[in-house]
From TrEMBL:
GO terms for cellular component: cytosol; plasma membrane; SCAR complex. It comes from Aquila chrysaetos chrysaetos. This is NCK associated protein 1 like. Transmembrane segments: none annotated. GO terms for biological process: actin polymerization-dependent cell motility; B cell homeostasis; B cell receptor signaling pathway; cell migration; cell projection assembly; chemotaxis; cortical actin cytoskeleton organization; erythrocyte development. One of its GO terms (molecular function) is TORC2 complex binding. It comes from the Eukaryota.
Amino acid sequence: PRVTPSPVSSPSPPHVAPIQCPPWPSYVTPQHLGPVHKDKGDIARVLGPFYHSFLDVLEFRDHVYELLNTIDASQCFFDIHVNYDFTKSYLDLVVTYVSLVLLLARTEDRRLLIGMYHCAHEMSHGTSDPSFARLGQMVLEYDHPLKKLMEEFGPHTKAVTSALLSLHFLFARRNQGAEQWRSDQLLSLLSTTGTMLSPASSDTMACEYLSLEVMERWILMGFLVCPGALGSSPQCLELWRLALQGSLYVTLLRDEALQVHKVTEELLGSLKGGGWGGQLGAPGPDPHPDSPCSGSLHRGRRAYLRGAVRELEVLLEDQPGLLGPKALFVFMALSFCRDEVSWLVRHAEHVTKTKTPEDFADGHIAELLFLMEQLRSLVRRHVGVLQRYHVQYLARFDALVLSEVIQNLSVCPEEESIILSSFVSSLSALSVKEVDDKEQFDFTPLRLDWFRLQAYTSVAKASLPLGSNHDVGRVMNLIVFHTKLLDSLEDLLAEASDLSDLCFYPRPVEKMFVATMEEPSMLRYSIAFPLLCSHFSRCIHPMCPEEYPHLKAIALGLCNKFLEEMARQASACVMDACAEQHNLSEQLLPKHCASTVSKARNKKTLKQPAKKGEPERWWPPAVGCGMDKLHLTLAELSLSLNHVPNFTVFEHTVTPAEYLSSHLETRFTKAIVAMAGYSQATQEVARPSEVLVGLSAYMTFIQSLGQFVGLDTGRIIRSVLLQQTQPRDAAGEQTLTTIYTNWYLEALLRQASTGAIILAPALQAFATVPREGEPHFSAAEFSDVSEMRALAELIGPYGMKFLSDNLMWHVGSQVTELKKLVNENMDTLVQLRSSSCKPEQMAALLPRLTSAENVLKRMTIIGEILSFRAMAQQGLREVFSYHCPFLMGPIECLTDLVTPDTDIQITLSIFELASAAGIPCEVDPALVNVLAGSKTDGSSPEEDYKVACLLLVFVAVSLPLLASDPASIYNTEVDGYNNNIHCLAKAIIHVSAALFTVHNKNIETHLKEFLLLASVSLLQLGQETDKVRARNRDSISLLMQLIVAESSFLTVDMLETCFPYVLLRNAYREVCRENMLSRVPSH
């Protein structure tokens, strides 16, 4: 077959192919043997298996000659209806031999292979191979194989013709068109309901499910090698012409086929030239592929079989007890379907040019394959029914009939009598108890004895001639069929319905699958193609183990391709339906309410009232049609994918539903990411609440399909959503966690650091500062309470932790830069720290500080990041409390149990647990971890601690500089400052708490020191003569209140000791008055 590798083109060894030997058989001339002598060992090793394969053919031919001569000498009797096994084996032998010779003639470079091996062998051993001469002669003789075969089979024409003529009645009855089948109600149990329980029996039991394709091969190849019989017998000519009408190609082996019309025309044409034309007396057949002899005939048969076998399968599925009496119908149906499928695949592969392509393509072939699978499954499920029925049939009917036939024999020699009597005894001893006890039946010895008896009694001078005692053969054929139903059911199913040869026709099978997927009514049967691949393991042969990996790869590759395509289409239907549900849910969003109401009002206005007496018309929405189509397609594919839970292909267990599950996960993941609509170039992204609405629509629809598609949709949803909480999904693509983390850092917080967005505590969100000439963007729509809750719902605790870690990394970077600035001003800060009670000295030292504005700016950025994180954590806490209240309660109780005396490691562990649930903590464990890992290289813990203390000093003494900033005005509408300096309070408190936790120092003490320094610095603003530097003094004073309110370590009483509360009250009153005046319109 075509899958066999060519030895001449084999890459090992590379020097074999280029060698050109002289014409056959002059291989021994020395001038040609230089390259062969050099690599004789490799040549002998590589070509040895091929050479010995040719020797096997030679040996097989010798045995065939001997056997055929023995049969002729014995003048054997052949009748397919009587000695079925003997006749079938004889015809199989003839066809196998003819096929082997034709394949040998097709082997390219056969002379080169044999000659090169012979040369290498002679050089290595000093003598030629003893079989070379005969092998060379055989190869020469079969250059024109059919002519040689005609000569060989000349003496055997009588035996071959008699065997073939016994097929005449059977073949004519089996080779009928669909119209005749329909008029005969073939395979119908309902046409004669009165005899529905009567056993289906026949005098030619095994012939009823004998493959029509096999009979065609017997007839066509038999008459090719015995053409003389065509001119001598009108019956032979009629049988031959009838066979020619069935097929354009007959199988030699696997995917090797014989173009029978063309070969026959060429052969008979040459015979006419030699004087055979007068003997044949008839022109050759039409070899043209467009001959109407076969295509329409088989198309009609397939159409009839789809209906008839469907009816049979439904009836037997409903009443499996009918399998007992009507088992023959099942195997007939399987055989008929197998023949039609095999014919279609074979001709679709080999017929390339035709005027009627519809004859060699069938978009409904999947239904036929599916019905075959159903019948096979039905037989396997109800094997007990078959065994109980037929064990009684054998014991109570077949044994009695056989005994009666034996008694009516006119002559029955002792030997034959003993054998036949043993058959009766064996059958009579059967009982139903053996079936109930699940004993294993084995009638192989009985069938073997019967086969030997056929051979003994089919010779010319047999004591008990089978040709004169047809009843013995007919009864035994019936018994053989019934015994196979008991002990060889799988072999019987394979004999009637084996489609393993389709493994060698991947292209036409794939084309049929594509046609099936394009036909909506066939989608429910598409699973038949993957199930077909489970048959391919029958192609392997113990004598050819090297084929196993290749055939396994073909079977698994086709199966995987079919299931992938089915799952792709099914998942596409699910996702399209989900997208439609998403569109509908999106139209209900609040942002669309105005346009929806407007459209509804306009529609109501434009709607014309119906005329009097005329009913209102209802037009179905266009979306309904699309959704109906999606649902229908999905229903069909789901039925197919869930037809079987699993099946085996070459020892691999295949689960079809898992393919759909995998595709759904992949598509669902991509759909979720697509809903976010993230563009890195324009920094556009959908609001988390909108994505959550769309996700809910997807989830609701997928969950509703749970029973419909036969999948664990909950597992799919959990898997996909869990992947969205990680930075990358299973395919390595970005997730919602990555998208929103990047967007909030790169878009929202970056704009906040430039002053384009401010934190509005009154709104509990970030707000955009309106500016002319810039596109409208509302930060509040992405950062308010509802959006933070939606974000927490989307990315979950894992995603929020990833977001938090990224935020903290940026905080850590800013703290590292702040430490560098502290180191630059180390000496001045030390002096300032020691001069907290000396205002004049502090005033003199302040101008010596560098980068004070930079320090305040970086601390403000830290505050913005921490404020956003706090909002996100609050959203997480609300979501977590809603979903897991039974977990939130114990965590909150555990957090409340922490006291200042608790060990710091235990405290941090509890705070880390609380932080994961969104609960705010006195000390942020994530910030502690980041700052602990950002210690200055080469510095001691004491130096790091000193830098941390001086950082607070730096911030405290720099606060008065904010008063000169025009944007440092406290806005009562947003409850904050226009330049976000109210974020300083959170930055100061949380950074100091984390820093001093790292160094295991008292946080409260250092914050009191900060209050003292900040108060002294701000009180000096009251003595400032430069109005520009002190113009926003009142607004800046309010920072002290914000800092105390932010910290759990500081109290108002502590603030009162260093910054009188009356100043805060006056400042707040002044700020409120200025805000009210600024809102009064000028006249």
